[in-house]
Amino acid sequence: MHVFVTGGTGTIGSAVVPELISAGHTVLALARSDASAHQLEKQGASVLRGDLSDLTAVRSGAASADGVISLAFGRDYGTAEALARSIAEEGAAMAALGQELLGSDRPLVTVSGTPWVPGRASTEADPVPTDGPVGARGQAVNALLALAERGVRATSVRMPRTVHQDGLGGFAGLLTDQARRSGIAGYPGDGTQRWPAVHALDAAVLFRLALESAPAGTAWHAVADEGDEVREIAAVVGRRLGLPVQSVPEDSFGPFGSIFAMDQPASSAVTQATLGWTPRHPGQLEDLERLQP
């Protein structure tokens, strides 16, 4: 299959591109910079220059492909306004991709987040939120999945709060960055809230499986660790960086503060049983032990 990929140099995408190529697919990847283009070409992908806001390039890449994996997301989300802009840009690109594939029965795999459900781990059957700080993202994903009725094999791979590799990435990575800036390995609340996680290399396999075989209109969970307590995550970060570990105010984490404070475990039991996906790489706490001071 010839696959068009956006976000091919991000934490997830840099694992997805070689996974696709090693499985015998060819890849055309969107690249916004010379550095990104060079990285993609080294991995064996062809390059289409442009960024997520260039809807002409986005549609052109989809038009030339047998399938699409959409992973790109804006890099600026340090404020609520910037996060909203990045979500809007992602939504416009997903809509353009979907329109390009109408009536083709070609696969379009997008990324979203696992939902949170009070009192239990969320499952693939639970809806994503359509209100709150990231509600617009849920609305865009739902609109894309609805294209299953219009001849697009649209599916969604829901990512946990942390997608990690070598101790970097995701919510745990943001917590680590904040620790380096503040000198405290902090966590909101009492730290008993749980964050699910997955290794980027395991997530890449699930994106390939969804591209190859997932039915239209379905959602899947790329969850390896159902939920580690945030105070345990902070404890590893503090030990690795030589910093004190303690509770800090939610607003220490900017627009993510209220989300960081939520208990949000997630299950991937249905995904593993249905698509035959089995996580094999180090879990979140083990991988964080690779953090460098």
From TrEMBL:
<protein>
    <submittedName>
        <fullName>SDR family NAD(P)-dependent oxidoreductase</fullName>
    </submittedName>
</protein>
<dbReference type="GO" id="GO:0004029">
    <property type="term" value="F:aldehyde dehydrogenase (NAD+) activity"/>
</dbReference>
<dbReference type="GO" id="GO:0005737">
    <property type="term" value="C:cytoplasm"/>
</dbReference>
<feature type="region of interest" description="Disordered">
    <location>
        <begin position="114"/>
        <end position="133"/>
    </location>
</feature>
<dbReference type="InterPro" id="IPR001509">
    <property type="entry name" value="Epimerase_deHydtase"/>
</dbReference>
<feature type="domain" description="NAD-dependent epimerase/dehydratase">
    <location>
        <begin position="3"/>
        <end position="215"/>
    </location>
</feature>
<dbReference type="Pfam" id="PF01370">
    <property type="entry name" value="Epimerase"/>
</dbReference>
<dbReference type="InterPro" id="IPR051783">
    <property type="entry name" value="NAD(P)-dependent_oxidoreduct"/>
</dbReference>
<dbReference type="InterPro" id="IPR036291">
    <property type="entry name" value="NAD(P)-bd_dom_sf"/>
</dbReference>
